[in-house]
Amino acid sequence: MNHSLLYWPYSHLLRPILFGFDPEGVHNAFTNIGHLLGKSPFTRGLTRSIFTYNHPILTQTVAGLTFKNPVGLAAGFDYDAKMTGIIPSVGFAFETAGTVTHHPYAGNPKPRLARLPRTRSLLVNKGFKSAGVQTILDRYLKKPNPDFILGLSIGATNSPLTSTPKTQIPDIIQAFKVVKAHPKYPLIDYLELNISCPNVLGAGTLATPAHLSQILTQIDKLHLSKPLWVKFPIHVNDKDAVNLVNIMVKHGVTAVVIGNLYKLRDPKAFDSQDFQKIKDLKGNFSGKPTEPLSNHLISLIYHHFGSKIVIVGVGGIFTPQDAYEKIRRGASLVQLITGMVYEGPQLIGDINRGLVKLLNRAGHTNIKEAIGTIEDKS
Domain range holding 77? Predict the structure, then answer.
């Protein structure tokens, strides 16, 4: 289907209606609808026929996993893994479900989601809202499409009892152990360690060389037999970023996901009306405010490490050009959430269709040829 035909009804009809309701309520409704749609081969197939677009030029093998296209769903949307049945049919080649935690957590106090439409951002403060890893694996996680790449993000339980590295690290390790021992472990293609969420107690304490080395040493002892990705902060200087990734490379981490939310309340990063609306709310920001820092770090890490570690680019992807810039800076794969919220579920197909045109225009025969072909412009 021509995905551009879907943009008008979403942007002019459905989005104005949805944006009239509480954002978390809308998210919960879509999660439940997606969970139901994912149960039926018919609804999965119908959804796939409407939204999915793939092309051989987009297919690549990254660290032993074959991705039909470079676009994935980032952690933070399907945090209880209820939508793993339907997400492939929307056009994503892969998904990071979660972030899941060892113990359940009901989430930070509401309101914990807000829209910044002029800025093209979301204020997020869910704080690792999670049903708990055991419940999520038992009740929700599934993988009806064997070609779909499924990842699971794991973080520390957001609790005063696990708010320091001394308590966070064993809590995370216990969650990894639960996942490895579960009968559904073979369904999971990679695991993501989330050390960078700014909305939890003790935020940022694991994103230091000493603590990162400590937790990766503990994970090494688990012999996971799955690729390990690490979700990276974007508020980190160049020297510290290189030091952190160097530790990941030494421990055999497969991929670094760049990056997490934007933390600053800098009025220059926001539309003035949006800024007034959220200035008294707790939380941090997705979407366009993250893009400059994310893009700079992608270029930095690719320049220093090249093929030693895979880069997954996240932050501010709303168009094929946005995704292509991250790829040309050094990302092998990209992920998004906020762009889909604003542009609609047809965005994934639109990005893939647009990437094919951009790759053909540049004379590339496969997307891998475009990775890292420009220097940092930030």
Answer: 4-370
